[in-house]
Amino acid sequence: SVYFRHNSTGLGNVSVSLVPPSKVVEFEVSPQSTLETKESKSFNCRIEYEKTDRAKKTALCNFDPSKICYQEQTQSHVSWLCS
C-alpha cells in the first residue's frame, strides 16, 4: 500500500507527498544496464482507503493585508493496493 497526501489552499498553494505505510518496505537493489531493453510491467491497482478533510478559515490577504480573505484547505489520504 502507498499513502498519498494532498494539501491545497484557496490561495493556489498545493503540496503533494507520498506518506510511507506503517510497515517498512525494502527493495533489492539490482544493477541497471541501458544495453538491454526490458519489458515494462503493468500493475493492477485499486483504492483500498480514501478520506478527504476540508476546512475553511479566514486569513489576511497576501495582495492586501488590510483585507480578509477566505482560505480553503483540502487534505486527502488515499491508500492504493497494487499487484
From TrEMBL:
What's a single GO CC term here?
extracellular region
Per UniProt, the keywords (alphabetical) are: Secreted
Query: Where is this chain's protein located in or outside the cell?
Result: Secreted
Pfam families linked = Neurexophilin (PF06312)
Where, if anywhere, are coiled coils annotated? Answer: none
Main subcellular localisation? secreted
Asked if the Swiss-Prot or TrEMBL record annotates the protein with the keyword rRNA-binding, the reply is no
GO molecular-function terms, A-Z: signaling receptor binding
Entry similarity comment: Belongs to the neurexophilin family.
What protein is this chain from? Answer: Neurexophilin 2
